[in-house]
Amino acid sequence: MENIFSVSHNKEIDLGSGETISNVYVRVYTSMFTSGLVAKMGANRFTTLMALASYMDEKGECYPTQIQLAEAIGVHKNTINKYINELIEFEIDGKPLVTRTKVNRGQGNISSFYKIHPLSQLAKFNGTIEPVNHKNEESLITSKGTTTSDVIRTNNNQSNNINNSEGLITNSNQAIKYFQEVYREVYNVNYTVGNYGREGKLMKDKVIVPYPEIAKEIIELAVKKYDDMFKNPRYPRPSIAMFSWAVNQIIPLIEEERNLTEVAEQSGNLEDEAEKRMLEKLAKLK
Q1: Rounded to whole angstroms, how far apart are CA atoms 80 and 227?
Q2: Which CATH architecture has domain 1-151?
């Protein structure tokens, strides 16, 4: 039988007030450590997982806010957002420890629903765990590079770097990451993906497939020109959803900028040629 570190429920007496206090515990199985899971996970992911687990029910489900989680482990809200994303990206043999679903509660109120899976080696009450596979330790733990339970999977041989040998964006994962990079550069805050599967498909269908050569330029201009072209009181900042309708307005901008660049280059070349001819004439006069 697998060793565990605690039981699920206990009652204690507060010696000061004499009141009975009911405490609930999460069962932490030693396989979490003996399998190498914690070592591969790292301190930040592990701490975040334990904070999430303190809220979970028997099914591993919980609804804590980012503020609650940030306060639980003593970090800033922006930091806990980063830690949560890293934890959700983490997989064991292609399976996630934690998945997240965004729930729209109306009037702009969006909350996160988390599911801690049995592979985490954590359980509560009658919950059970799923054994970690020890047979393939080298490929046991991986990272998806995604941020929700809606996973975009890529071929293992496919590069996930945004800037490949040709500087092109070739898959949805790269497109979303580049959008986040430009968004951070312009607004100095992180962009949180609402639904990775839906928004990744949108990027693929509206940007990558129809415009593979200029996908990167489309994303960059969409963010950098948003305040001038698309900003309104209801949508003060850009989102990936904008690519469902804004691409057709961005394409002419790219063509215009390329034409201006060509004109500038041609002008520069003409100036260089004129200067060269002048120097040649001066040289003949000497």
Answers
A1: 28
A2: Orthogonal Bundle (1.10)
What is the location of CATH 1.10.10.10 in the chain?
A: 1-151
pLDDT digits (tens, 9 = 90+) for 25-40: 788 888 888 888 888 8
The pLDDT value recorded for residue 26 is 81
Q: Are 148 and 193 in contact (CB under 8 A)?
A: yes
In our burial notation (b when 16+ CB lie closer than 10 A, e otherwise), range 202-218 reads: bbbebbbeebeebbbbb
Cα–Cα dist 122/46, whole Å: 11
Q: What is the pLDDT of residue 148?
A: 37
Report how far apart, in Å, the C-alpha atoms of 159 and of each of 48, 93, 162, 203 are.
29, 20, 8, 17
276: Cβ contacts below 8 Å, ≥ 6 apart: none
Percent of the chain at pLDDT > 70 equals 67
User: What pTM, to 2 d.p., does this model score?
Assistant: 0.44
**What's the mean pLDDT when you consider all of the chain?**
76
Over residues 128-181, the pLDDT tens digits come to 788 876 444 444 444 444 333 333 333 333 334 444 434 688 898 999 999 999
Vertex 152 angle, CA 149 and 156, to 5°: 125
Token pair in block for residue 29: 């199985």
115 CB neighbour count, 10 Å cutoff: 17
Output phi, psi for 45, to 5 deg: -65, -40
The first and second tokens of residue 182, run together, are 């430009």
- CA 137, CA 145: separation in Å to the nearest integer? 20
C-alpha 113/C-alpha 101 separation (Å) is: 5
